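Researcher: For the record, we're logging two predictions in this thread. I'll number them. Prediction 1 follows.
Model: Prediction 1, sequence and structure:
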Amino acid sequence: MHYRTLGRTGIKVSPYCLGAMMFGAIGNPDHDDSVRIIHRALDAGINFVDTADAYSRGESEEIVGKALKGGRRDNVVLATKAHLPMGDDPNQRGNSRRWLVRALENSLRRLGTDHVDLFQIHRPDPDTDVEETLSALTDLVRAGKVRAVGTSSFPASDIVEAQWVAERRGLTRFRTEQPTYSILNRGIEREVLPVCERYGMGTLVYSPLAGGLLTGRYRKDGQPDTHRSAFGFKHLTDEHRLDTVEQLVRLAEKAGLPLTHLAMAFAITHPGVTSAIIGPRTMAHLDDLLAGAETVLSDEILDEIDELVPPGTDVGTLDMAYAPPAVQRTALRRRALEERTAA
């Protein structure tokens, strides 16, 4: 395994990051099996593990904590996240100091450790001043509970604003970003990746297999994978995306590669990408991905991918992708009816 530096933190991480979202109730509820999968990944040279408090409401963190007992913790770059709801209380979510301090304490308890190497803000929070968030994170870093802080799904403009605020206020700055990135979703190539490179931020990209579409288990006329289909994801049945998948299947066959290996190799080829997150639910899923860890794509193959999905473009929308309030809230993109009538 060839290790890369996570931004300018000096921390060395593997190009594959083990994502723990599938460990727990929403994926693999068997704790012992999940622990075996984690150990297999670590034995293969992966030293980067990413989880979040919201994954199966803390169960994922508990499983990761079990897997890292017995001396393995010191050799792992451990990342977790906070922001998403962890209860019915309206203050058990978001990016406020009140919640982040409590959320981290809960995560540390579940993970069975006294610190995390990377604490990430899972989503932007328009209701919280970024200075409030950075101030709280700075105190957590100074307390020794966090080594570095990062973001997830932040638009480029939010990343730049946070960097400016950190510089002007003398606060800890975000060192990483976790955006979605795959052959089918290349939008971050336009602004997010260049901005991260400009500020020396590492990136750990999620859904490099496009939410399951680039596994080969979803074909235009095939039987869908029952596990992911049960979640009702629209991106799995998007005709445009499925048409592109068929073209990519043919390209992978031409290159003599499984589709998963083509997709993962593409994700870690971009110079702005530090690691790509893999989220195996079974040992077979992990073994397939590990078998392609040394795959390198030729310029000819990358050129053909560019022809199918031009750089900086998306083929449809990934259901899990972040949509900012300006897009989600009708009131923010339509003038009031009285204004329209008066005009």
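Researcher: Logged. Prediction 2.
Model: Prediction 2, sequence and structure:
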Amino acid sequence: MKYLRPYDLAREHGISTQAVRNYERDGFIPLARRTASGYRTYTEVHAAALRAYLALVRAYGYATGGEIMRSLNTGDLDAALTAVDRGHAQLLRDRSTLDAVGRAVEHLTRGPALTEHTSSASGEPLSIGELARRLGVTAATLRNWEAVGILTPAREPVTGHRSFGATDVRDAELTHLLRRGGYPLEHIRTVVRQIRTAGGTEALSAALEDWRRRLTARGVAMLDAAARLGGYVTLLDIAPAGPLAAGEPAPAPESPSTV
């Protein structure tokens, strides 16, 4: 068996030997053997663990990457796979959200143009009743959206009545669209705040393209991490052997012998 020094592992990834020792201390790679004089010696198993961990960090972040490796290094394969599954599920939710916001932005940009401070054909902001009728919802629904931080209408200085300008109407229409798609209010609140930060639907369109590129990069990183993780699990020899799970295709039958 070939033994490796901390320097050998560190050099492959351009990190410090102290980082390698820290990863060992934190359980991200297995404990090293020690020579009689106390020096650490690593093997290809440790090298594979480090490759897997750094790939996981790029794909899932430090916290999840560390969780997966600690689980594997203590023999808890199911916990490691559960963490992997959560990461893929989150990526799928992010893609779904991205698509929903993209459709919402397209819907809003196809609508009638509104100026920055007006929201009706008469050039006046809308009252809560007018906006409710426009969307086909109740005033109580709009007040609920305001209560959770989605809508932030101005108030008339004398009466205190709500006044919904163009930005408020845009946010309400987006909220209505996403609610019909089944999205929870907490999720919609985050999306609406992203639109406000981006400066409107036009700026958000560019932000969505950047978001999509980042999701694609994360997905590719997950593929790389899966390959390296699979190699490490093979070296650990902790994967159960046995028949395929229910629903998986069976191996192709052998060709019949000819006589």
